Amino acid sequence: MLSPTDAEWDEFVAAHPDATFFHRAPWRRLVATAFGHKAHDLFVRDEQGRLAGVLPLVEVRSRLFGHALISTAFCVGGGPLARDAASRDALLRQASELGRRLGVDYVELRDTADGADGWVPRSDLYFGFERPIEPAEDANLLQIPRKQRAVLRKALARDLQVTIDRTTEHFFPLYAKTMRDHGTPALPRRYFDLLLETFGGDCEILTVHHEGQAVSSVLSYYFRDRVMPYYTGSRAEARGTGANDVMYWSVMRRAVERGYGVFDFGRSKVGTGPYAFKRNWGFEPRPITHQFHLVRSSELPNVNPTNPKYQLLIGAWRRLPVPVANAISPFLSRSLA
Asked: In the chain, where are the structural domains located?
């Protein structure tokens, strides 16, 4: 069966109502280039030879976290897209068969509500946050709960400047330090450069400056009607100046300016600071379901910072000097898919 071209793949994705930014064809090359992981793009065709379903998978091998097929690695979504139930079932069969053939520990489909026989759902780790953005600024402000709105108004009254950047010059140092502070290896700078290069205006960096210094920065994805602030970084003083609040508010207003109408705040784990922060902004959580097909593994994976067995590693990482953490991170973060 003839493999789809990038153009055919993206045409199918563009027409499917459940498609996400993470289904787009360029991810296969980007992940391979940035991390060296192999992409396995599954697909089915109908009797007329037309594309009827797609499922992007990334094969991740890690001494720390095992061997897995993930849709889609380094993303919060992916999963099967199909025109009908038969095509969807065919994609899931292909995924489980590929997992067995490769000898992986498990196959993971992210943000996928429905599985099939032999697939195990898990919905207790992550919650997503999204809502429409009111186009009018005053109405947009009123969407934010009163207490948080007062914090934002105070921050907006400060001397903070906002820029739209087409390089990672301001963003990456803030992101890398924030990741070190959280006890997590940072993704390599090359990855973010590739995101900007690959997706053009659909990937944008917004930075907040205070007294001539970048203090808070966010890389956002734009897809269909929504903006998704995805990677962030900030200096310690960002909290005192309200730079993080101004940053997210500015992303909202920038999205309206560009004609987008939904603010997708991404996923967070229950009981974490980001989860509480998003609730404070008036966003209601929705449970996110991942589907797993266990191949060699006998239990569901638990590769996340809330796992107690990683606490010693996280504590040690936080104590590393930032230059040392940045030097080591690229060798470790490729496994944090």
From this structure: 6-125+288-303, 128-286
> How many whole angstroms separate alpha carbon 17 and alpha carbon 174?
35
| Residues 122 and 290: beta-carbon distance below 8 Å | yes
Residue 225 carries which DSSP code? T
Average pLDDT, the chain: 93
Q: Which CATH number applies to 6-125+288-303?
A: 3.40.630.30
Looking only at the bridges linking them, the beta strands covering 51-62 and 81-82 are antiparallel
3-state secondary structure 237-267: HHHHHCHHHHHHHHHHHHHHHHCCCEEEEEE
Q: Where are the beta strands (DSSP E) in the chain?
A: 38-45, 51-62, 66-71, 81-82, 106-109, 120-122, 126-132, 160-165, 203-210, 213-223, 226-234, 262-269, 285-287, 290-294
Judge whether 6-125+288-303 and 128-286 match in fold.
Answer: yes
Phi (first) and psi of residue 261, to 5 degrees = -125, 0
Do residues 202 and 221 lie in contact, with contact meaning Cβ atoms separated by under 8 Å?
yes
What is the CATH number that goes with domain 128-286?
A: 3.40.630.30
Reply yes or no on whether the pLDDT at 329 is more than 70. yes
Give me the torsion for CA of 229, 234, 240, 243, rounded to 10°. Answer: -40
User: Model pTM greater than 0.90?
Assistant: yes
Rounded CA gap, 22 and 39, in Å?
13
- Between 240 and 170, where is the model more confident? 170
Place of tokens 């709105």: 149
Is 295 a residue whose pLDDT tops 90? yes
The DSSP output letter for 78 is -
